[in-house]
Amino acid sequence: MNIRLITPAPPRSRAGNRATAARWAAILRRLGHRVTVSVDYGGEAADMMVALHAWRSAAAIEAFAGRYPERPLVVSLTGTDAYRFIHSHPRETLRSIELAHRLVGLHDLIADTVPPEHRAKVRVIHQSARPLAGRDPARRHFRVVVAGHLREEKDPLRPALAARRLPDSSRIRVDHYGKAHTPEWAAAARAEMADNPRYRWHGEIPHHRLRQVFRRAHLMVLPSRMEGGANVISEAVVAGLPVVASQIAGSVGLLGTDYPGYYPVEDTDALANALLRAATEPAFYRDLEGHCAARRGLFTPAAEGAGWARLLAELAA
Question: Which of 7, 8, 209, 216 would disulfide-bridge 21, Cβ 3.0–4.6 Å?
Answer without folding.
Answer: 7
